[in-house]
Task: structure prediction
Amino acid sequence: MADMRVLLSEEQIKERVKELGNEISRDFAGEELLVVGVLKGTFVFLADLIRHIDLPLQVDFIDLSSYGLTTESSGEVRIMKDLEQPIEGKNVLIVEDIVDTGYTLKYIKEIMLRRNPRSLRICTFLDKPDRRKVPIVSDYNGFTIPDHFVVGYGLDYAEQYRHLPQVCIVETVN
Ligand code: 5GP
Result:
């Protein structure tokens, strides 16, 4: 078991996710949206977020993997599972759990832009700007957090803790 400290409570998360959904609904009013979740860490956030988006929308998922099994991104990313549909001419909203070095989002943005969407925006649940290696800014972000390794609300440590309703900082691993 790991020692953990709550960083974001269930209530804080609920409130913020609702705000994000409302903001996205306003910005895309009158349009349709293709919400693209990046597996696996986004499945909880995405499920809550889309229920606050009042627009016709579709959902698709992409699964990426960075080389190496460390907690630090190596900068090399590859597609493990691609989208099931073309995105040309669509309003695409990429949903990512957390932006850290920025390598993953930079890569996703580049491959998506090559497919000629009508528009492309990024929604992240968490942002750790202190660790950024490449400049990337999300259009919508839930919370900006300090440089700690966090779990819960979809985020894992060795595939554990994704089901926690809060976001917790992992302090020590026993
Ligand atoms: P980046 O390419 O921006 O460095 O990394 C983004 C990915 O690293 C996220 O999608 C996530 O899978 C993982 N990651 C970065 N920071 C954390 C963290 O604090 N906790 C967890 N569980 N994953 C993280």
